[in-house]
Amino acid sequence: MFSTSPNDAKERYCTHYMYLNSNIDQYAINISELNIPNFDKFLNLLDPNAQIICGVRDPIGILKHNWGRDWTKVSRNYPRDFNLTYDYRNYIEFLTHNKKTEIKVDFEELNNGVFILNFLLRYFNQDKIYYLDMNSIIPENAFKTLDFLARKFSFTPPHIEKQSFFKIQEFKGYIRYLFPITLYANKKDINNRLNPEIDPLNSIAITLDRPRQNEQINIIKLVIDDDLSNDIALYIQKEDLEKLTNDTQFFNAVKEYLHDFLFEIKKIDKQNELMMMKEKEVLSIFASDKALASKFLNIFQKEYQHLEQNRPDIINSWKYYQKFKNNDFT
Fold this sequence. Notes:
This protein is an alpha/beta fold. It contains 16 helices and seven strands. α3 (59-68) packs across α12 (279-288) and α12 crosses α13.
């Protein structure tokens, strides 16, 4: 089991302690930020000889992600429920990437939530660390990697029937910040103008979400049968699906609305991919600011000293970091 982490060090410790002393026999503690009060005490109370899986990634790719995304999307300012009269283009506007005209380098943020490996190493037995390059868990490699890790660290391996879940791209555009949202489909809303009044009791709920374990039925392939189904699901109760399929006109209207909505999501996702910052843009920033490049070189060398000593193969596989180290900013 993997648990989300409270934003208070004591509460976080108590939560983990509770889970570790329950009947859960497989549990992982995530450490991905430092800027929490009394976090040093939290780290000192952990078992220094615990087995550790440490995810690492080409730092130029990390900066591309950190600098290039529109993090205002996290605020999620939009209605979570809608009906067939709602203009889904409002959701598409939310999903649209806003390319930054100026990059603000926040070293405090980077040192507290991104480049934290060197700080954490002092709290643990470094011989117990297994480095996992992020390329090992991209969709085409994820299932095989998790199967290997399960056998290496003695947790339950992923089941072959769940292989489709490993095709999900967590940071595919901004849909991770949009979903879940719920369409309340009602016959009275067909062909009507905007009617913001939602009638949940007399409507059929269809939830747009990421694919996950769910007792409801995923009907996305009844609406749009392509690779979008790797990243999006349409969940509906079995009895509601039966009601829809027994009313052909209503079902066709719902499918048409959802198909058009999903088609626009797919289109904006492709547009976003073209607009998102690329590694070459990060290198270009360093090319125009040698003092900034020198500062980051010091950060990277300190951050990855232990990794370079123990897994030089990972360091050497990082294409853009190698270009950065060699002053090749092309």
